[in-house]
Amino acid sequence: MLPDPADVLVVTPHPDDAEFGVAGTVARWVNEGRQVVYVVCTNGDKGTDDPDMKPGRLASIREQEQLAAAKLLGVREVVFLRHSDQALEDTPEFRKQLVRLIRMYRPETVVTADPYRRYLWHRDHRIAGQVTLDAVFPYARDYHSYPEFIMHGLEPHKVKEVLLWASDDPNYCLDITDYFDVKLEALKCHRSQVDNIPWDMVASWLRERCAEMAAGRDFELGEAFHRAEVLY
Ligand SMILES: [Zn+2]
């Protein structure tokens, strides 16, 4: 049985990246009636400075935090792939997992981290972004890529567009002025990540970032992406 199709698949390297990158846009899309599904690649079990925090416990806390954030934004479903944090690799298995999900949910839009951000960029972000792009094109699209999928009813699917957050080369920006507060609230759900920084600082830094991304446009706050259309 295949799930109901989703309009948008968000592939996030770690729990919380999607909230930084695309949560305002997600809240806006949900309000406009689009169905959004999250795919969380790693379990985030190394994202702490606390030497007493056990990785297994951190992973389960971070899943709960991600579920709370997704619920607040109106995300329909969250799929956890549970790869180990800092251990994501460009493997045939990981690519196949993403192709399977694209063919299951048949999204029009796929959103992930820009793998081509220069210099210091988390390796998991680079790899999640790259493998997602590969999964969209050509693997999800091509009939003969995975004959075993066809046998299970997972037909080829052509995604319409890919949006990449944290891009050095943004060419697309969506107005999130009315959704900035809910983006902040969703981010706040990731307590284990943001609790050690004064919240006012996080909020004003993020507001500045979203204002910068909207600079020169006729709205105050935006989320910017590199947008690529799948033309072939
Ligand atoms: Zn991350």
Structure description:
This protein has 232 residues and is α/β, with parallel strands linked by helices. 42% of the residues lie in helices and 18% in strands. The protein contains 8 helices and 7 strands, in the order E-H-E-H-E-H-E-H-H-E-E-H-H-H-E. The protein has a 7-stranded mixed β-sheet with strand order 3-2-1-4-5-7-6, with helices on both faces. Helix 1 crosses helix 6, helix 2 packs antiparallel against helix 6 and helix 3 crosses helix 4. Zinc ion binds next to loops.
Mean pLDDT: 96
Number of helices: 8
What global shape is seen?
A: globular
Give helix % range: 40-55%
- What string gives the helices and strands in order? EHEHEHEHHEEHHHE
Structural class category: alpha/beta
Q: Low-confidence parts lasting 5 or more residues at pLDDT below 50?
A: none
Outline the biggest β-sheet.
7 strands, mixed
Any idea what the radius of gyration is? 17 Å
- Ligands: zinc ion
Order the strands across the largest sheet as they lie in space.
3-2-1-4-5-7-6
Cα end-to-end separation: 29 Å
Tell me the fraction of residues in β-strands, as a range: 15-25%
